[in-house]
């Protein structure tokens, strides 16, 4: 007999923000460029490669100076260079959710202690289908374009190609992120109304997530 997993989505943040989102039924979207701010990077929560849309490995690097050519790659035995292309000054806002897959009667294997660094409370959305219906309707009524999908985690040591805004360094795979992007934005935080959020979600302590189980009432 095959075990089917149940999909949940969650938003993790500090208690005051989680309770405000829940009670006032909205989803918070921050300006995507803020995700690369130094104060967030040093906390280990945000990817310094955020907004990277192309990575190219370089094995040969030359410069010309005073009509003379210098082969920099010959100065090091194991020369490895990298050329990265980043977006900047975007008009895109982002909401990061945590993706949970859980088998009935079992504890989720998506829990990671690092999630505690994101905040002490989490909204768990248990009716994901209804959530998307409400969210899409709200975004469309506000004339936002949007893109949403589960984040793909890649290895920056070997990746040598284009990237999307749904790609992140594999060092952040513990976030198990489901990313929602909206555009165009005014480069500031946006609260997207989610009428009915309280009917499809609950709030729990983030630390209690490691004990979360889905049980069916008899």
Describe this structure in words.
The structure is a single chain. The protein is elongated. The chain has two domains: 6-49 and 90-211, no CATH class; 54-86, no CATH class. The chain is mainly beta. It contains three helices and 14 strands. The mean pLDDT is 87.
Q: Please tell me how large the radius of gyration is.
A: 21 Å
Structural class: mainly beta
The largest β sheet comes out as:
8 strands, antiparallel
Number of strands: 14
What's the helical proportion of residues? 10-25%
What form results from the Cα inertia axes?
elongated
Give the total of domains: 2
Low-confidence stretches: none
Oligomer: single chain
Distance between the termini: 20 Å
Measured by DSSP, the beta-strand proportion falls in 35-45%
**For the residues shown, what is the average pLDDT?**
87
H and E order: EHEHEEEEEEHEEEEEE
Number of helices: 3
Q: In summary, what is this structure?
A:
It contains three helices and 14 strands. The chain is mainly beta.
Secondary structure elements and pairings:
Blueprint: E1 6-13, H1 15-24, E2 26-31, H2 38-41, E3 52-58, E4 62-65, E5 68-71, E6 81-86, E7 93-102, E8 121-125, H3 128-141, E9 145-150, E10 152-154, E11 167-169, E12 177-183, E13 190-193, E14 201-205
Parallel strand pairs: 10-11
Antiparallel strand pairs: 1-7, 1-8, 2-7, 2-13, 3-6, 4-5, 7-12, 8-14, 9-12
């Amino acid at each position: 007999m095959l075990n089917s997993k149940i999909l949940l989505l969650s938003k993790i943040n500090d208690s005051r923000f989680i309770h405000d989102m829940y009670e006032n039924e909205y989803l918070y979207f921050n300006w995507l460029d803020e995700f690369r701010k130094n104060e967030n990077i040093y906390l280990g929560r945000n990817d310094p490669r955020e907004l990277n849309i192309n990575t190219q490995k370089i094995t040969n690097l030359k410069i010309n100076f005073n009509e003379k050519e210098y082969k920099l790659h010959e100065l090091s035995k194991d020369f490895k260079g990298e050329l990265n292309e980043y977006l900047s000054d975007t008009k895109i806002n982002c909401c990061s959710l945590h993706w949970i897959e859980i088998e009935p009667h079992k504890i989720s294997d998506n829990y990671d202690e690092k999630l505690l660094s994101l905040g002490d409370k989490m909204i768990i959305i248990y009716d994901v289908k209804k959530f998307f219906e409400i969210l899409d309707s709200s975004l469309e009524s506000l004339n936002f374009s949007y893109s949403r999908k589960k984040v793909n985690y890649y290895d920056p040591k070997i990746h040598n190609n284009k990237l999307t805004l749904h790609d992140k360094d594999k060092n952040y795979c513990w976030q198990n992120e489901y990313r929602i992007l909206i555009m165009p934005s005014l480069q500031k935080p946006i609260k997207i109304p989610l009428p009915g959020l309280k009917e499809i979600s609950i709030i729990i302590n983030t630390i209690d997530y490691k004990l979360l189980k889905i049980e069916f009432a008899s």
